[in-house]
Amino acid sequence: MKKTATLFLSFLLCFMLGAKAQLWEFKFNQPPATPSLPSSWAAVNYTFSYSGTALNLKINAAGTSYLQYNPGGASTIATKTYKLLRVRLANETDGTVARFYFRNANAWIYIPFNIDANSGYKDYTIDLASEAFSGNGVSFGTNKWEFTGGDADASPAGDGTHRNMPIIRFDLPSGHPGSGSLPADYANKTISIEYIRFGSDLQTLPVNLARFTAKKQANGIQLNWSTASEENNSHFDILRSADAVNFEKIAREEGKGNSNSAINYQYTDTKALPGTNYYQLNQVDFDGKTKKSEVVAVNSGLKNVDFKVYSGNGAIKISAFASNDDKGKLLITDISGRKIIESPYAFTKGQNVVELSSVKLTAGVYVVTLAGKMEATSVKFTSK
Predict the structure, then answer these.
(1) Going edge to edge, which strands form the sheet with 350-356?
(2) Rounded to whole angstroms, how far apart are CA atoms 35 and 38?
(3) Among the residues of 123-193, which ranges form H helices?
(4) Backbone angles phi, psi at 329, to 5 degrees
(5) What distance in Å separates the CA atoms of residue 201 and residue 178, rounded to the nearest whole number?
(6) Sign of the alpha-carbon torsion through 264, 267, 268, 274
C-alpha cells in the first residue's frame, strides 16, 4: 500500500511538473554597446533608438511600418504551447489599430488590436486561441495559430503539425484597410516597446501593473495602483525615496495570488517626507522573484522640519515632523528676541511631540525656534 501511494505521488508530481505553464519572452531593455537591432529582428520604415527599458521606433514616412522577428528554423515560438501574446508599448500616434502578423501556408495572417492614443506604457493582450484571424481579405476563424502544412518549417515527430512559428511581425500602427499606408502626419511619431511575451495561459504572463499614481491628500500622500492580471503574486513592497536614488521599504500590501480580472490597491503614506517624495512598487512572487515598477513623484508640501505650537493652560505643546533623526536646542523668545526658555531636544525620524509644562507666559506673541544640526526653523505663536 505504501509503495502504491509513493508511486501515485510520484506520478502526480511528474504530471504537475509536466503541466507547468511556459513563457517565451523578449525584452528590449538591454541595448547592445553599438546601437543595433537584436539578432533576428528587423525594423521596416522605422528609425530606431533605445532609451531606458524600451526600443523606440520612429515612423519615417507614410507607408507600412513594421517590426519583424525571423529566426528561420531556430524559432522557439511554439504554436502548440503558446496561446497568449502580450505586448507592452507606449504610443504617440492617434488611437488606432495595430496588427500582429504571422506566416501560415506561405501567406500572412493577422489579428488586429486597438492601441490607445498618445498613451504611456500599457499592456495589450491577444488570445491566439480565440481571436478571429484575417489575411488577404479573408476571415479565417480561430484555428490558424496552431497550423499544419504549407511552410518549410519541419513538423516534429511526424505529426503533421508545425510547432514553431517561422516569422512574426507587428504593424504599429497598421495602415488603413485597403491602402496599407498611414496618414502623412504620422511621420516622426514614436512607438516604444518594452517587451513581447508569448504564454501558454494567462498565468504565465507575470503581474500586469496597469496604473500607479501618487497624490497629495490632507492626511498624507495616497498611492493608487491596479493590476490587469496577476500570477503567483505574493505582495507589493512600497518603496520611498527623497532623492529618487536611495529607496527604503515603508509598507507591504498583500497581493491576490492569481487573477485574470482588474484589482485596485491603495495605500496612504501618513509620514511623507518634506519636499518631493519618490515612490516605487516592488512586486514579489511567491517564489521570491521581484519586479520594480516605474517611479512616481509628488511634493508633500512639508518643510524639512514642519511643526506647530499649541499654548494654553500653563503648558506649551510642540508637534514636529522631522525628515531624519535630529538633535538640537529648542528656544522660545518674545517678539523682541529676549530668550524665555532654552531646552535640548532629540527628534526621531517622523512625527514628534514635545510638551513643556508649568510655563508661565504673559499674553503676547512669541517665537519657537528649533535649532538643529543642519538648520534652524522658527514659528510664531500667541499666548493668551
Answers:
(1) 305-312, 315-322, 350-356
(2) 9
(3) none
(4) -115, 140
(5) 34
(6) negative
| Residue indicated by cell numbers 498565468 | 203
**How many whole angstroms separate alpha carbon 126 and alpha carbon 145?**
12
Is the alpha carbon torsion for 357, 360, 362, 367 positive or negative?
negative
Is the C-alpha dihedral spanning 28, 31, 32, 36 positive or negative? positive
> How do residues 257-279 score in pLDDT, each as one tens digit?
877 677 899 999 988 887 788 99
Integer Cα distance of 127 and 104 in angstroms = 17
The per-residue pLDDT for range 32-85, each reduced to its tens digit, is: 555 678 888 899 889 988 876 788 999 987 678 899 988 766 556 777 778 888
- Give me the residue label for grid cell 519615417: 60
| 276 residue type, one letter | T
Q: Per this entry, what is the length of the chain?
A: 384
Check if the beta carbon of residue 275 is closer than 8 Å to that of residue 243.
no
Q: What is the mean pLDDT of residues 297-303?
A: 77
pLDDT in tens, 304-348: 666 788 887 778 888 887 777 788 888 898 888 888 888 888 888
DSSP 190: E
- Residue found under cell 516592488: 282
